[in-house]
Amino acid sequence: AKPSATTTLLSVLQILKKLVQSGRLEITTGGWVMTDEANAHLYAMVDQLIEGHQWVKANLNITPKTGWSIDPFGHGSTVPYLLAASGFKGTIIQRIHYAWKQWFARHRYGDFLWTPYWKSQSNSASDHTMLTHNMPFDIYSIKHSCGPHPFICLNFDFRKIPGEYTEYSIKAQFITPENIEAKADLLMEQYSRTASLFPHNVALIPVGDDFRYNKEKEMEQQYTNYKKLIDYINEHRQKYNAEISFGTPVDYFNAIRERYDRFPTLKGDFFVYADIFNEGRPAYWSGYFTTRPYYKILSRELEHNLRSLEILFTIAFNRARQTGSSNAFKIYEKNYEKMILARRNLGLFQHHDAITGTSKANVMRDYALRLFESIQDTVKLQEKTIELLVQRKPLDQQHGFLIGELERDNFGKLPRKTPIIVTEGRSTDFIVYNALAQERLEVVTIRTLTPRVKVLDASGKAIDIQINPVWNITETSYTSRKIVPSDKEYEVMFVARLAPLSLTTYTAAYDEDGYQGKMATLYCTECQDEKTKAFEVRSKQPGDIQLENYKMRLLFDEQSGFLKSVTKKHMGKQIQCAIKFAAYKSAQFHSGAYLFKTDPEQRNSEKDVLEQYGDLTILITSGPLASDVTAIYGPFLAHTVRIYNSNSVLDSAIYIENDIDFEAPPKNRETELFMRFVTDIENGASENPEFYSDLNGFQYQKRVKVSAIGVEGNYFPITSGAFIQDDRMRLTLLTTHAQGAASLEPGQLEVMLDRRTLYDDYRGMGEGVIDSRLTRHRFWLTLETIDAAPAAAQPNPPEPNNNNEEQPNPSGADPYQLPSIFANALANGLNYPANLFIVERYDESNQLELNRAVRLLRVQFPCDLHMLNLRTLTESNLPLFPSSSALLVLQRQGYSCRIGGDEMIGYFCGNGSSSSNGGGTGSSTSNPSKNTVLDGGGGEGNEIDHRPPEVRELQLFRRLRIDTIQATSLTGLHPGERIASFTDIYLEPMELKTYNLTFSK
């Protein structure tokens, strides 16, 4: 009888397990994908690694030991850090600049210890240093990996499938007794040349390529012919002075560690990647840093919602379990599968041909549909968890009364806000969810259908609001458009102070006193019609435009509507800070999804993309909480700069928003659009300006311009931000998504916004990039002073072996540069904005009772200790069901006390919750968790916890009991010591650590 498909699948699975357990097959890295290393954000990188590791452990009972990252387009130092934190023994990389390849070969440094940049020396087992092997040749295919001569290596690709005619199938000959000696001689010559590039006597030779071993016949051909060669060479060991065996990466690392222990140490990264083998001239892979920004933003939107859900789900699910709320418990169990799918969809998109934007348009669309589906699912599941957490009567649960504020018709459209209904007889509650473990200030905006509205906080007190217009844009012709305030919708803005990890209920109520004093004043030309009654509309006066709050004054150019300068009032000095939009013209066939190259025939490489949109409209909005200037250039660009007047720390930052629409092709063809800041900051010599770009939202790396390699070679990836500085001032730009950035002239910082290249760049995609969409880019901009003196000691004394000086600097190198704590807080706010949910009471008699202020944490986390995730683990024997354990992933975000002055530190760390003197190695440090002593405060309200102290110290969350806390490796596969109390947790500055929390039954 013929075996069934199920029987065959089970037998294949058994064979696979046997091969893995015996070591004949090795699972390398074990992440959900081979992640991109330039565009992926830290949260998603860690999450896809956890998802993959938990899967291979559950299904194959193995723990990966070595990394394999041979296809990302350039390598950063975040992945080796993550692998070291996961207990790995070594990792393998491939795509680095060809000049780096030559340098490694010349010095025989192909195996090296990759250490974090902020480490002064490797002095402990937890220093996260990773033994790394750089494959010495251009690419990983057999043609390019057996040795330095590709056309000789072609002789040793033995794939011959009927109907396939390729260079290897024509060139290669099967091994026979007649040719085996000649072939062995030829192969050993290449292997010897490869081995000569390393200081030990072990060579690693991969045998494979993309889309290989998909035919059983090829596996037989490759194995049989190589086996003949290996046996022959081993039998003639005297002649060849070598021994060859089949092996896996872990065999290689074990072998070199036995023979060698003097590996050089490397700090830094390998961006920008450049190849030279395609055309014989350098090609820089810096285009994909920005390609398809709409998709990059969509990925971060899912990341934000997934993280928000993970934390809520863990708390709500275990509360339901512990309180016996079986109905809620079943709802969470039933929907857990959707959370698993969201993890995997987010993880899938971190692939090095997904978030990079380097897949065909139809493939990118499929990715986007998956992201969109999971965004919808994670928002719906947040609603279900919040419904449990905010109700006063947990045993009489109501469901389906929350809806997320954002609506989205499909993945290709920007989300829009659902109006909150307010009438004389009806008010509406809405819940704001802060998913950060620190108190935060959040600018909240809601939409209403009337300007007669007031907002009440959780205690029922009216708070300050500002009512802004919702602009209606009517196309009167291609070159002309009418922009007027809507008389049907209004934007209500207020600044919320949100408790750490909390759900706060606000009320939008009808204001019988009217709306005087709350309405923004509008300054514009021809933006008023007979319907504009609520707002006072004034004509824009001639001359430059000025916005002002009590901390700074902004000056805008009258003609362009763009920022010109900033005056910091405490300095009493005007600082040049001009914004410019322009574009590079792409070199056809050389600039594409992967590559960025400017047109060499265009004498001035920059082009004015705005001149074609002569219909400029400038709108000015001024109100009690915020003022902004918006410059609209046709359908192409709507650029808004806003400052706040909220009497808070937010008033020190500048908010920027760009709506960009390249329109349908072929408009704006071969266009690489950027936004540039031109300042008087002296960030290096005229030929070699410097800037600092972040890597994966985790660390910052210094970049120095090299004039000889052009614009494209000086563009670097940023994921969260970049800054330029001199000895007195720093300009920091923080962003919501990955893009390319550069500093090409002193005082300048620019970011690439979007790209349209009609032609393929011959790196594998086979088409141009023409599927751009209307995209909203959001930024924070800060101008901060730099204190030249070492930071003063804070109230908490430093830990032993730390000091109050800047970065230990035994080598004489520059100190490691860190953002300010203010910049960290703004970046966290951009990455993880507060989520808003509307309470819908369909029946006026509904007796729904809500806790208006729900705090989920017992104590606020220190200002520099970020809860990266609180991720429920899956039951080991039930792959679609949640367990009672969760991984708590913590990140101690480094910062410098020298940047921004004491005011920022006083705000962010001055509420009795800080325990850190400056979380970076560039400042004094102390235990960030020493102040998180749990005082026994109970659940909601003032309930008293009568449990013994040793029990209370395990309880991090309100109304949720934890049995055990266990340290573990980053992805949860290597258990460590049991933790007696949360006060025993300690992280070094910049460090990531994971703890396994097991909740009580």
Automatic annotation (TrEMBL):
UniProt similarity note: Belongs to the glycosyl hydrolase 38 family.
A single Gene Ontology CC term: Golgi membrane
Record text on cofactor binding: Binds 1 zinc ion per subunit.
Top-level taxon: Eukaryota
Cited PANTHER family: ALPHA-MANNOSIDASE
Subunit structure: Homodimer; disulfide-linked.
Family matches, as Pfam families: Alpha-mann_mid, Glyco_hydro_38C, Glyco_hydro_38N
Biological role: Catalyzes the first committed step in the biosynthesis of complex N-glycans. It controls conversion of high mannose to complex N-glycans; the final hydrolytic step in the N-glycan maturation pathway.
Catalytic activity: N(4)-{beta-D-GlcNAc-(1->2)-alpha-D-Man-(1->3)-[alpha-D-Man-(1->3)-[alpha-D-Man-(1->6)]-alpha-D-Man-(1->6)]-beta-D-Man-(1->4)-beta-D-GlcNAc-(1->4)-beta-D-GlcNAc}-L-asparaginyl-[protein] + 2 H2O = 2 alpha-D-mannopyranose + an N(4)-{beta-D-GlcNAc-(1->2)-alpha-D-Man-(1->3)-[alpha-D-Man-(1->6)]-beta-D-Man-(1->4)-beta-D-GlcNAc-(1->4)-beta-D-GlcNAc}-L-asparaginyl-[protein]
Composition-biased stretches (Low complexity): 801-810
Protein name, as recorded: Alpha-mannosidase
Domain Glycoside hydrolase family 38 central: 283-371
Keyword Hydrolase belongs to the record: yes
SMART domains xrefs: Alpha-mann_mid (SM00872)
